[in-house]
Amino acid sequence: MPEGPSIVILREAAAGFAGRKVRAVHGNSREPIQRLAGKRLVALHSWGKHFLMEFDGFAVRIHFMLFGSYRIDERKATPARLGLEFTGGRELNFYACSVRFIEQPLDEVYDWSADVMNDAWDPAAARRKLRARPDALAADALLDQDVFAGVGNIIKNEVLHRIRVHPESRIGALPPRKLGQLVAEARQYSFDFLEWKKAFVLRKHWQVHAKKTCPRDGTELSYRKELGLARRRAFWCSRCQRLYA
Questions:
Q1: pTM of the model
Q2: End-to-end Cα, the chain, rounded Å
Q3: How far is CA 73 from CA 52, 77, 151, 194, in A?
């Protein structure tokens, strides 16, 4: 599943489509996608794991789910969920994803301050939301899109290792300093992720995700195939990541 930084990369790569008119539409989405024909793309946005295409009076939300992908100015052999052919011979094609129309203004639908990659990100609001969830596991809290829009499983595992917190720690048991670190690193690691992914070196920087040994102390990493309410993979060091319970 693409995480927030990957959606930012898509938004930046597709920026040149803004202002272009949709010439033709294809795809197997059940949404009424033909309504896009003849419409002009006003702007592109990202919120967490959502890629948003704004048209006059409505928007289209793309969520890549677990296996979604996209192609710019080319096509895959498999049918697209949504394919947009623009003036100038350019194309945006989306595969194995969720397509939804949004009829309300995006500012009424999205809390931009919850997006860890957005300039409007509000760390104080994130801390308030976390304090209202004292029983939540740290691993689940980081994956809560209402608090950390854009954070996915890779970022979760790496952030918790960075701040030396066990994924099964309770939010209410974290000292204020650790809570502040969790909030700060969720954003910082997301931007590190963005930089590394653009340079095609992201995997080289993983410390615990999909790894076997802790780079800090050489301890064999613990692994859980499904951890917490989110039931996502977890990797952690039982020696240097403290359990706050």
A1: 0.93
A2: 30
A3: 18, 14, 28, 23
**Which pLDDT tens digit goes with each residue over 92-108?**
999 999 999 999 999 99
1, pLDDT greater than 90: no
The fold for domain 2-106 equals: N-terminal domain of MutM-like DNA repair proteins (3.20.190)
Q: Mean pLDDT throughout 186-195?
A: 98
Indicate the DSSP class of residue 45. E
Q: How far is CA 84 from the centre of its chain?
A: 23
Helices then strands (H, E): number in the chain? 6, 10
Asked if the model's pLDDT at residue 73 lies above 90, the reply is yes
* Residues with Cβ within 8 Å of residue 78, at least 6 apart in sequence: 95
Only one residue has tokens 């990541």, namely 241
| Amino acid (1-letter code) at residue 4 | G
Residue 78 has pLDDT above 80, yes or no: yes
Pick the CATH number of 111-235 from 1.20.950.20, 1.20.1270.50, 3.40.50.300, 1.10.8.50: 1.10.8.50
